[in-house]
Amino acid sequence: MEKVDAPVRSRKTMKLTFPRPPRAGRVVVELKDVRFGYDARPVYESLDVALERDDKVALAGPNGAGKTTLLKLLAGVLQAQAGNRRLGHNVNLGYFAQHQIEALTPTNTVLQELRSAIPPQAEVDARKLLGRFLFSGDDAEKRVAILSGGERTRLALAKLLVSPVNLLFLDEPTNHLDMWSRDVLEDALQEYGGAIVLITHDRHLIRNVANRVIEVVNGRVTNFEGDYDYYLSKREDAEQKPVTPSPRKEAKIQTSGPKSKEQKRLEAQRRAETKAAKDKVRKIEKEMERLDIELKGLEETLAQPDTYMAGTDVAEISRNYQEGRRRQQALEAAWTDAMQSLEASRGTLGVG
Question: What is the pTM of this model?
Fold first, then answer.
């Protein structure tokens, strides 16, 4: 009988865990009447956002809408040009972005790199903390230069958490991660006891971690007190409602004279483009939902001990799972592109 190695998914017995965070006050961070912009270009005016200690927030919206700016304002990486930012009682925050990975010293070992981040007088068992992030035994002596993308991300997170934090800001934490590392990070974030603010194109991660969504579109912030599916349903409901022009707009329409054939043609073309963009987004979302169900079934199969008994083609199941995750990533990228097209078409119609 052919010997089959255990699939990647079975490695989830190795569990990444964050140190238990201290308990914070109810409100962990708040922005009040904040204004911020770059040079002469305003991004936010009169911005109000408050996060509570149990929030797992995903920032949603098209690229360039202001998500990263909002994350940095909340984290204190950017300073508001007007208004106030208030950090809550007993809050310790951590901020993760790609530059933390790029700043790792290639010539250091994993252990040396972590120890370089431990403050003087801090009582931190470096090897024990590395074990939480799946660096055990000889792994701690690896050079940073030879680490995979997933290992570098885990090391950067370990450095971030040399002191336990109860408010975690994550900007694209799954970039360059292999599929197994994504799964392990997702499980750790689900069990994390603090608040999270997250930017990611990984819909699977958002769906399984977020309990609140803040949508950012052209500097406008809309709060959805529910998970990602709740956000999608509310957004679809809003799209299906007819747009009622304000009295001011109606008056302008009535006094502007009849529309030319060219104006009517352009408006009809834009409406058709918006409908096509909506249809494409919905088609991708339905395909993603179907794929989510398929992947969940494969995960459950791979988690069953009976799967590895004689007669089961484990290698084929594992290949199907890996291929499904690759298709999932491709669909996530297609969904992001489709959403950007939809937002652009809405802008030309003046629908927001």
Answer: 0.69
| Count, residues in the chain | 352
Report how far residue 160's alpha carbon sits from residue 183's, in angstroms, rounded to the nearest whole number: 20
In a domain? residue 69: yes
Residue 312 domain boundaries: 260-349
Alpha carbon distance 182, 186 (integer Å): 6
pLDDT in tens, 289-298: 888 788 878 8
For residue range 125-137, list pLDDT tens digits in order.
889 889 888 898 8
Q: State the pLDDT at residue 310.
A: 60
Q: How many CA atoms lie within 13 A of 250 on its CB side?
A: 5
Final residue of a structural domain among 231, 248, 268: 231
Residues 6+ apart with CB under 8 A from 15: 184, 187, 188
The CA distance from 335 to 319, in Å, is: 24
Contact present, 325 and 179 (Cβ < 8 Å) = yes
Residue 63 CA to residue 314 CA, distance in Å, equals: 39
CA atoms 136, 140, 142, 147: torsion sign: positive
> Which CATH number characterizes residue 83's domain?
3.40.50.300
Decide: 185 and 158 in contact? Cβ < 8 Å.
Answer: no
Based on the fold, state whether residues 223 and 272 are members of the same structural domain.
no
Asked whether the beta carbons of 28 and 195 are under 8 A apart, the reply is: yes
The label of the residue with tokens 């030879």 reads 146
Q: Domain boundary at 215, 231, 247, which?
A: 231
CA distance 76 to 62: 23
Taking only the tens place, the pLDDT of each residue in 260-311 is 777 777 777 877 887 888 888 888 888 888 887 888 788 777 767 777 676 6
Q: Are 220 and 100 in the same domain?
A: yes
CA-to-CA distance for 62 and 343, rounded, in angstroms? 7
**Which residues in 297-331 are b (16+ Cβ under 10 Å) and which e?**
ebeebbeeeebeeeeeebeebbebbbebbeebbeb
Give the three-class secondary structure for 94: strand
- Element holding 234 (H helix, E strand): helix 228-240
Please give the DSSP secondary-structure letter assigned to residue 146. G
d(CA 236, CA 286): 13
